[in-house]
Amino acid sequence: MYRKELDNLIRSGQKVSALMLYGDSHFFIDYYLKFFSTIPDANVLSLYHDEYDFNSAKAHLSQGSLFGDQNLLIIKNEKKVPKRELDILLEMVRKNPDNTFLYAYYGDDMKTSAKAFDKKSGGIEVRMFPPFASEAKSLVMQEAQRLGVQLDGYSANHLIESQNGDLGLAFNELTKLQILGRPISSKDIDTLVYGVGEVKIDQFINHLLAKKDFRNELQHVLESGEDEIRIVTAISSFVTQLYLFYAHIKIHGIADSRAILGYKLPQKIEQERAQQSIKFKQHQYDAILNLLLENELKMKSSGGMDKEALLLATLIKLQSYI
What we know:
Blueprint: H1 3-12, E1 18-23, H2 26-36, E2 43-48, H3 54-62, E3 71-77, H4 83-95, E4 99-105, H5 110-114, E5 124-128, H6 133-147, H7 153-162, H8 167-177, H9 186-192, H10 196-209, H11 215-223, H12 228-252, H13 257-261, H14 267-277, H15 282-301, H16 307-320
Helix pairs in contact: 3-4, 6-7, 6-8, 12-14, 12-15, 15-16
């Protein structure tokens, strides 16, 4: 099934008891998951990622409803749930109308995982694709209206472009713009919103720190107008932020971006920073930051050197520390 058909089901008021959301748009997976999980007085069990446990899921759906409310099971995972387990959970939903099962799958094995949700099981599988540009603008403007943010079509497009087309990030940035209490201009977005150039650099840095081949992305960043010194300082800032997460987790056992940075990151990015930070040890942070500072100084003090060659050598050496 595609999203248009799901929208028709919603408009018709038909109850959806077992739903799998998957595909190339995590934004729409989250968007519809939030819609279908809003069940008043539901008895909810949410199992996210490594929290998934088949016995817990089965036990939740098998328990009776004493007061007429529903048992709602939500599974969010990048790893596929085995089909034999999905078959059992779907059968429990089919036999008990008080049960609802929502499965948000963020992985790549889409066809295999979706096979359990067929007509025989009573389940519905919906593949999500990224929205067209006009639809993305419409969604952002709807969310802006809901938040009381005064945003015209031009500014909505500018906001989406600043987030490299990621509607989840665009929605998060709208909450920052609420504080202005006046119509939002493209200049406001340039001033207050985390921009596309920085997003490109972050994507490049993530590849670098994951020990992946970063050369093509580095070339794209350089071609977008960023210079070598700016790239080195951006990497230093990113690694320093990771180290702050690392130290906070070591001391407090949790990651709290507000306590670490002074402002709250979107939950997904906060989790990514936390997971990334603990992959490195103290001596690796020391080596990486010293290398970056040393070569930043060389670039700033030597006018005639080949900065791009030095940058490439620095990044290759950095990866050897990981």
